[in-house]
Amino acid sequence: MQKATPVKCSFFYVGLRLQNFLLKPSLHHIVFLFLGLCYLTFPNNNAAIDSWYYAACVKHGEELINSHHLLYNIIGKGWYSVLLMFNPACHALQALNSMNAIAGTACLFICFATLKQLGTEKNSAFLLTLIAGASYGFMRFTTDAETYILPLFLSLASTYYLAKGLTLRNSLISGLLACCAILVHELHIWWALAILVFLCRQKPFKWQLVLCYSLPFLLTPIAYLIAYQSLHHPSYTFYQFILGEYGKSNASLSLSLAGALLTIVNAIRSFVQIHGQFLHLFKHYGLYLVLPVVIAIAFALKGFIALKRIGIGIRSNSALSFSGLFLMAFLLHLMFAFLSSGNAEFMVMLPFLFILYAGSRYTQINLIALKLFFCALFIWNLTLGILPHSLLIIEKADTQTRFEKQHPSAVFLWANKPLVENVMTYQMGFSYHGTYIKPQLDLTHTIDSFLIAGKRVYTDMNNNRTRFSREALLRNWDATEIVNTYQLIPLDSFNTIYGKNYVLEIVKKPN
What we know:
Strand content: 5-15%
Structural class: mainly alpha
């Protein structure tokens, strides 16, 4: 009698892959682990605004429940607690960085396995996975403390079980993993929806598969209800809690020309780093950047020359149906990012969906072109994206936070108020509340009121920074108003890649 195969979760699968590597190393495993080592070795030393907030939640054990990413802080807190047992000096931000780097490495293993299950030739699957792993949007978030890599791994694992075969058992496990992905971040509802449509379009229609996939999603409202009831006297309804920032009117969906432009730019940045800071990087470090950039461009050009055709022949109907799944998920995520002002964070999964689409649609992939594209992406994104953010000072707030702690009774007008505020929360705890003026139009009335009350007001708004970024395009304030109205006295200085910057005191101009 044949023994029943034990149910394998995705983490168990990755563990087996790593075990096989230790027992019998292969080039594929070595390269995946090399990329993972890069993610671990070069964490973002200019952590994003949200990264500091999540790290503060994990460090202080407060505000662990957030509706948009219900389980992320809870998982991060567990991971941080485990690391503290081995290294009491570990910082929460470092813990989250390492968690995402490890999850990102696991994404490579599970994506590679999925492509092979779909019938993609092994070397093609390997190189396609490397291209996704070297894409800037993915590398960026595997080296930061943001929330987007863990749910990506879970959605990939959900897809892997469907690729293994459309059985009731696989559909149930797929649904459970997709549900977990949504609970880690709501964004992955679009990938889960694409899988549901894929199952509904199967011919002949099998309602049992749809039911088994859908059943685990009953856990989602239950989890949200438990989380909502655990909050102490929430000031919003359960419906608003589910919608998160959208329900509280702190975020919205809209159609705009700026959003369309940012969507195009950030969709490209999901694969290749492009940013206004390039001008400053080449100004200060051009001698070190020229050679790797030229090599990357040469690889890319050779890749396009080698790529006479993407593929030879179309896959079988079975594989083609999966390509429709990936195309639908790609378009749904891209559309939601567009409605969210072209948010690059909502596009982190696009490289994986793209290579899964290519791998499931075409029978042969030009291996030479894929190798060249991977080399070009890896060199370019590492040189102009990952290394600068890991080694240089780009958007750090060390001087601002130090100055703020030295002047606890003052008022602060920081150009990047959320960043400074979140770093202070990380360092001082959630009980700390500084006095801030929010950068916006018509600041003079607010500043005057504080000056009349005898408060000292400090700012960094007249500093150098790139004009070519999402933050700059969406900015609704102009430092010119401050410069023309007040006298700015420099009190402290700090250097970034944009040049020398100052912390300034705002005082009334002498009559």
